[in-house]
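I am still getting used to backbone structure tokens and would like to learn alongside you. To get us started, please write out a protein record for me. Start from the sequence, derive the backbone structure tokens from it, and show both lines together. Once you have written the record down, we can walk along the chain together:
***
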Amino acid sequence: MKKICLSLVGIILAFFVGFGQNSSDTTYKRMDLHVEEVNILSSYYSQTGNHSAITGGIGTQRLTDVSNIVQLKLARYDLYGRKKTVDWELGIDHHTAASSAYVSKTGASATGGTRIYPSVTWKIINDAKRQETGFGLTYSNEYNYKSYGANVSFAKRSFDENREVSLKAQVYFDRVKMIQPSEFAPTESSTPTYSTITTASGRTIRVNSSSEASSGIPSESRNTFDLSYSVSQVINKKLQVALVGDFVGQNGYLGLPFHRVYFTDGTVKVENLPSSRFKLPIGVRANYYLSDRFILRSFYRFYTDNWGVTSHSASLELPVKLTQFVSVSPFYRFYTQTASNYFRPYSEHALTETYYTSNYDYAAMNSQYAGINVRIAPPKGVFGIKNWNMLELRTGMYQQTTGLEAYNLSLNLRFK
């Protein structure tokens, strides 16, 4: 109910913001800082499955997530004709996961949680030089995870406007709370007691359980460095292609401390993964203008990492203009991946293995995602409301060969 109320408040605020400005006045460049655009996004996600990592690769994966995001773009022009923008975003997710109850062997742990993730991005758009620069900060917080991030970006267009090259560097510094399954968690005691914790590098260290109980749950760091690039090119009047990719490096604690692993002899431990990972996704995007009513959008991505996972994904989307202001876009995506070197199902790991996980995110699998997107953008405003210039509704079904199934529904409202 709180999430619904948040969306309603955001919509009301956006209405007031919209009516307070004239978005159709483009005869001059505004020097004052003003609201240029407001987006409100709400989504619902639900999944079922029977391979929970918390219970070692078996057990329910039933989960729901309700998300609300408000995006606010402020803009102004300076004396040199450069456009300067500040994009604010605030997101709040609330999820319930049935498997979370079994962090405790009794099934008595909390099953819900809330994540809050604000961000801000500054950009300078210089049309005279055909370039754009940006800088952003991000933050995310939930009970067992906290993340701080920063990014810088640069984009440059060719003289004929047919080519654009963009680069973006991002860094995230995360802290993972070491919330362990109940049978491994340190217990509070009036006298010093000691337990062992596996560090990111795979070492085990002795810690004072009683002192930790009074000072809070210990945490481990996780750092991510990402350099992404994009090169887009207009081939002709009908075809545009883009090459996109990332170079991603991670180090620190890369597993989750409440994921159990069961071994062939019945022994149970917490999953243990290497303390570094390198990822390389490369993709090609192609958009083809079929006619005034049809556009074909396609995307292919190849992914590989040093944990043994290799994947391929391909998607197609066909926007169809029903009227000049209403479009319907059916879409389909196919995905396939190999298993990580460190993955084994329930009770199939050997005690001689150094690294081990039964998290099915690292399993060999195929998946399919299909759905439809409806977009309404009339020039006089949605339902005649002048500054409400776009409404978008998207829904889809997702299936994995592991048995996981999911459904999502999202709504995007834009005001200018």
About this structure: The helical segments are 2-19, 209-215.
